Amino acid sequence: MADFQEKISALASFKEKAIIKVATLGQFKVWRNGEAISSKAWGRDKTIQLFEFLIANRHRKSLHKELIMDQLWEDADDRDFKVAMHGINKALEPDRPARTEPAFIIRQGVSYQLDLEKIWIDVEAFEQLIIIGNNAINEDKESAILAYQNAIDLFEGMFLPNRIYEDWPAEERERTQVLILNTNISLAELLIDVNPTESIRLTQNAIAIDPCWEDAYRVQMQAYQAKGNRPQAIKTYKTCVDILDKEYGISPLPETNLLLEEIKKA
Prior knowledge:
This protein is an alpha+beta fold. The protein is 62% helix and 9% strand.
């Protein structure tokens, strides 16, 4: 049990000690030694795009320069890439001595990746906390609740909202949305017996993100039932039916219908 708590504490400690901190959820912002890096320090937008691309693809080992350029820019050449990469290194390390290796970008020939052991990124910490919660859920409920709560606190909104009209962040944006939906529901389920009101709030958060997330309605029904509010539980079911029919022309899953019957009989 202590192991899960230690992992949560280690993530918090890493954030405190990291020289570079990056926010990508709900905004894009980078801090160096506690001070925000200005848009002027970044220079061209292509510099920011390249850094954001490396973040979105942080789990892919050594991204080849040609692949990066193909996905980011239609008419870019080697010079554009070199200028953008130089801009990243200059923004992150303005005082780095000439002809020394960058501290935060790992280069292998013409392939690049971020050094995640040196940069704190909110979306990475968000994912790591969820992993801790998922691993702890059957062994240490208290740690699972804490990990999920910390992850939810980090989620300020969609991944890289400043790139909403570009294709390359779409996969990571969709992935983080699924993660926050599942995390809200997992935490809501853990809290039903001790704090059903909070469970209802968490399911409402999930529904606000995706009105068709059926798991959220099912857990919300259970939470209202735990509070002794059977009419509201049934109303939640009816809302679920209406939304699913309107958006997809489908009915709720058998387990949702079964839950309704159990609530009616209770």
